[in-house]
C-alpha cells in the first residue's frame, strides 16, 4: 500500500496506478463496504435534496457551517462571532452591534458547541445556540433565516467552553468557565489561585421568543469546567458539568492537572437554584457584559449590563453535588432515558457511567466522601451504574441512537466505540481518520434520537485529501448506524474545526425558510421604500445616501457634491420581493466589506473618500443578465468646492416605479 501511494505521488505514474486499482480489485472502504455501495448511500442526485440539515461549529472561524446529510455538501456559512465580508456581517452598520462586548467591538471568536433548541427534550428547529470560547459569549441563530439574531456575553467567566447546553424545554442554556479566575476580577498574584480564583457556572434564561437573559450564576471552586449536559426525563431540572484540574494548578497544567485519579462531575439542581434565587439567596456581583440583539427594525442594538446574581452553594443546600469521576473527564452525556450520565475520561481506562437514581439515593442517605469548598462529594461506588471496560484510549464524547446503544468518540486510539447501555459492553468499534473529537448522531443527545448516521468530527486529516499547503483541511466522516456494525460511507471536508454539530431532519425547518423581508414591514429608519423617495442629504460633514436597488440599477446612480472630509453613509434598500435576489454594493477604496442586502432589507455602508475623483460603485451579486450594468458613480471634490450636492433618479425617470 505504501509503495502504491509512493507511486501515486509521482505525477506521471498516477493514472497508470489508479487504473491498476480498478482493474484488479474493487476498492473497499475501511468499514468493509464496497465503494459503490457506500456512494449509493450518500449520493444525492442532481435536483434531489438531503434528508438532514447539519449545523457544525466552524471552530476558530467563529461561525457556523450548514451542511446536508448524507451528502456532506456545504450550503452556507452563517456568520456568528466573526466579521464575514461575504454577507457584510459585522461590517454593515445594522449588524455591528452583535459583536459588541464589554471589551469593545470583538470581531472574532472560537465557536465550539452548536445546540438546537428543544421542546420536551427533542430538537425543535427553532433556534441554534453556540458558544464563543475566547471572549465568553453565547449566540442565538434563528433557523428560519439562518442568521444570528442575538449575542450575550457571560461576565465573570473566562473561556466559555462548557456551553451552551440547553435544558429540555429550552428554559436555559447553561455555560461554565473553562479557566477559573478571580470573580469579580481583581489584581491578585497568580500563585494565589487556590484562595482567589473561582469557577462560575451561568444559567442563561431563554424566553418564549428565544430572547436570552442571564438569570443567575453559581460559584464553584476554582477548577476548570469542561463540558456540560442538561438532565432530561427523571433528571430534568439538573445539569451536569465535568471538571478537571481539581488540583488547581496554575502553571504547566499538562502535569499539574493530571495528579488525581478522579476529578468531578458537578451535578447542579437548577430548580433548587431558582428557589434559592427567589428567596433572595443570590448576591449581586459586579461584572460587565454586553447583551446584543436584532430588534424589530432588523437592526442590531447593544445594551451594557454591570452585574449578575451569584449563588454560593453554602447558602443554598442541595444545590450542587460532586460525583468523583476518573480522570480529567471531558464530555458528560445523558442518555435518552435521562437515567445514565456518561463521562469521557481523557486519561481514563474505563468509561464511567453514573446513575441518576443511585445519585438521588446516595444524596438521601448522605453517602458522602467528604466535601470540597462545602460541596458534598458523593461516594464513587454509590452513584456508579457501571464502567464500560476497554473503551479505547481517551474516550471523549458519547451520543445515543435511541435503540439502546451509545457511541463514544475515542481520541487517542482514533475510533468510535459502540456499546450497549444494558450490558455496558463494547459491541462494535470502527476507526476514524483521524483523531476524532466530538461525534454526532442526529438528535443523539436528545430524548428521541433520529439516528441513522453517526458523524465523526475529526481533528486531523493527514493523508485523506489533496494537500493544501501547511494547513490541511478539517474533516468529518459519515457512518451508517442502521445495521449492527457501523459502516463508513463518506469523508467530507469542513470549514474551520468542526468541534461539534447538530443535525435535524430537514422536514423540521425546510418549509419555514424565510424567502424575503416584506418591504411594507421594513421599519429601518433609513429605509427607502420606493425609487421616488431616493435622495441624498447633507448634515454637516455627513452625507446620507438613501438609495434603492432593483434589477438592474441603483437609484440614484450618479452623485456629485461629495467633498473630501465627508463621511458618506450609503443606506441601501433592496426593493426586490422575490426569493434569493440579494443585491450587493461595493465602492472603490472602502475600508470595509461589501454590503449584501436581502430582498426588502436595508443595510448601511460607511465610506470616507480620501482623494478627489470619480469613483464607481457596483452590485457584487450576479443578479440578472444586466448585472454587469448595475453600477453608478460618485464624484468627490476638494473640501469647500462649489460643486452642489446633486443626484439623479434614473429608475424613477424611466418609470420603473
Ligand atoms: S471540546 S473534542 Cu471544545 Cu467540545 Cu470535546
Ligand atoms: Cu444587483 Cu447584481
Summarize the structure.
With 657 residues, the chain is mostly beta strands.
Explain what you see.
This protein has 657 residues and is mostly beta strands. It is 9% helix and 43% strand. It has nine helices and 45 strands. It has a ten-stranded mixed beta sheet with strand order 6-7-8-9-17-18-13-12-11-10. A six-stranded mixed beta sheet has the order 41-40-43-44-38-45, with no helix packed on it. Strands 35, 36, 37, 39 and 42 form a five-stranded mixed beta sheet that branches. A hairpin with a 6-residue loop joins strand 32 and strand 33 (487-494). Helix 1 (2-9) runs antiparallel to helix 2. The model is unreliable at 1-24 and 653-657 (pLDDT under 50). Residues 549, 552, 583, 619, 621-623, 627, 630 line the site of dinuclear copper ion.
Q: Helix coverage percent of residues? A: under 10%
Determine the structural class based on helices, strands and strand pairing.
mainly beta
| Biggest sheet features | 10 strands, mixed
- How much of the sequence is in beta strands? 35-45%
Low-confidence stretches: 1-24, 653-657
Biggest β-sheet: strands ordered side by side in the sheet: 6-7-8-9-17-18-13-12-11-10
What separation lies between the terminal Cα atoms? 68 Å
Q: Helical region count?
A: 9
Write down the Rg.
28 Å
Shape: globular
Counting DSSP E segments of at least 2 residues, the number of strands comes to 45
Bound molecule types: (dicuprio-$l^{3}-sulfanyl)-sulfanyl-copper, dinuclear copper ion
Overall average residue pLDDT: 93
Amino acid at each position: 500500500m505504501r509503495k502504491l501511494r509512493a507511486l501515486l505521488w509521482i505525477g506521471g505514474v498516477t493514472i497508470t496506478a489508479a487504473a491498476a486499482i480498478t482493474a484488479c480489485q474493487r476498492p473497499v472502504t475501511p468499514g468493509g463496504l464496497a465503494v459503490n455501495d457506500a456512494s449509493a448511500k450518500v449520493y444525492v442526485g442532481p435536483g434531489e435534496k438531503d434528508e438532514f440539515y447539519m449545523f457544525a461549529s466552524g471552530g476558530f472561524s467563529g461561525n457556523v457551517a450548514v451542511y446536508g446529510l448524507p451528502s456532506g455538501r456545504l450550503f452556507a456559512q452563517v456568520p456568528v462571532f466573526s466579521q464575514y465580508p461575504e454577507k457584510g456581517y459585522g461590517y454593515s452598520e445594522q449588524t455591528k452591534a452583535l459583536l459588541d462586548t464589554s471589551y469593545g467591538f470583538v470581531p472574532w471568536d472560537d465557536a465550539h458547541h452548536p445546540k438546537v433548541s428543544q421542546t420536551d427534550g427533542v430538537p425543535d428547529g427553532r433556534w441554534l445556540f453556540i458558544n464563543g470560547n475566547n471572549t465568553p459569549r453565547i449566540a442565538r441563530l434563528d433557523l428560519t433565516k439562518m442568521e444570528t439574531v442575538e449575542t450575550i456575553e457571560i461576565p465573570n467567566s473566562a473561556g466559555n467552553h462548557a456551553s451552551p447546553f440547553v435544558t429540555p424545554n429550552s428554559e436555559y442554556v447553561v455555560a461554565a468557565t473553562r479557566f477559573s479566575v478571580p470573580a469579580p476580577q481583581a489584581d491578585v498574584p497568580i500563585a494565589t489561585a487556590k484562595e482567589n480564583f473561582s469557577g462560575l457556572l451561568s444559567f442563561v434564561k431563554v424566553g418564549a421568543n428565544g430572547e436570552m437573559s442571564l438569570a443567575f450564576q453559581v460559584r464553584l471552586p476554582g477548577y476548570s469546567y469542561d463540558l456540560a449536559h442538561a438532565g432530561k426525563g427523571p433528571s430534568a431540572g439538573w445539569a451536569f458539568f465535568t471538571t478537571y484540574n481539581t488540583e488547581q494548578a496554575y502553571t504547566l497544567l499538562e502535569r499539574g492537572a493530571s495528579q488525581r485519579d478522579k476529578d468531578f462531575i458537578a451535578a447542579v439542581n437548577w430548580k433548587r437554584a431558582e428557589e434559592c434565587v427567589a428567596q433572595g439567596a443570590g448576591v449581586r456581583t459586579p461584572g460587565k457584559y454586553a447583551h446584543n440583539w436584532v430588534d424589530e427594525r432588523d437592526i442590531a442594538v447593544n445594551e451594557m449590563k454591570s452585574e449578575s446574581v451569584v449563588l454560593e452553594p453554602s447558602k443554598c443546600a442541595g444545590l450542587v453535588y460532586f460525583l468523583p469521576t476518573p480522570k480529567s473527564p471531558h464530555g458528560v452525556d445523558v442518555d435518552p432515558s435521562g437515567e445514565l450520565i456518561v463521562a469521557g475520561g481523557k486519561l481514563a481506562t474505563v468509561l464511567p457511567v453514573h446513575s441518576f437514581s443511585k445519585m438521588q439515593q446516595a444524596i438521601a442517605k448522605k453517602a458522602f466522601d467528604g466535601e470540597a469548598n462545602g460541596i458534598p462529594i458523593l461516594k464513587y461506588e454509590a452513584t456508579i451504574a457501571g464502567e464500560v471496560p476497554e473503551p479505547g484510549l481517551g474516550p471523549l464524547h458519547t451520543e445515543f441512537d435511541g435503540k439502546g446503544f451509545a457511541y463514544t468518540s475515542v481520541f487517542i486510539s482514533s475510533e468510535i466505540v459502540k456499546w450497549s447501555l444494558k450490558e455496558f459492553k463494547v459491541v462494535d468499534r470502527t476507526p476514524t481518520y483521524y483523531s476524532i473529537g466530538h461525534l454526532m448522531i442526529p438528535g443523539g443527545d436528545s430524548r428521541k434520537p433520529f439516528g441513522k448516521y453517526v458523524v465523526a468530527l475529526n481533528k486531523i486529516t493527514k493523508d485523506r485529501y489533496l494537500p493544501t499547503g501547511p494547513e490541511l483541511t478539517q474533516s468529518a466522516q459519515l457512518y451508517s448506524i442502521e445495521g449492527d456494525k457501523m459502516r463508513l460511507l463518506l469523508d467530507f471536508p469542513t470549514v474551520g474545526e468542526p468541534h461539534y454539530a447538530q443535525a435535524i431532519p430537514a422536514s423540521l425547518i425546510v418549509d419555514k425558510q424565510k424567502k424575503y423581508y416584506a418591504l411594507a414591514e421594513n421599519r429601518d429608519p433609513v429605509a427607502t421604500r420606493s425609487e421616488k423617495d431616493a435622495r441624498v442629504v447633507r448634515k454637516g460633514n455627513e452625507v446620507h445616501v438613501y438609495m434603492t436597488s432593483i434589477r438592474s440599477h441603483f437609484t440614484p446612480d450618479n452623485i456629485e457634491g461629495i467633498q473630501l472630509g465627508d463621511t458618506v453613509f450609503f443606506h441601501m434598500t433592496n426593493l426586490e420581493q422575490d426569493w434569493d435576489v440579494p443585491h450587493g454594493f461595493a465602492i472603490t477604496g472602502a475600508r470595509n466589506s461589501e454590503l449584501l442586502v436581502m430582498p426588502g432589507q436595508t443595510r448601511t455602508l460607511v465610506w470616507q473618500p480620501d482623494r478627489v475623483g470619480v469613483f464607481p460603485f457596483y452590485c457584487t451579486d450576479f443578479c440578472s443578465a444586466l448585472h454587469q450594468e448595475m453600477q453608478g458613480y460618485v464624484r468627490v471634490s476638494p473640501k469647500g468646492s462649489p460643486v452642489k450636492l446633486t443626484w439623479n433618479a434614473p429608475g424613477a425617470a424611466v418609470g420603473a416605479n
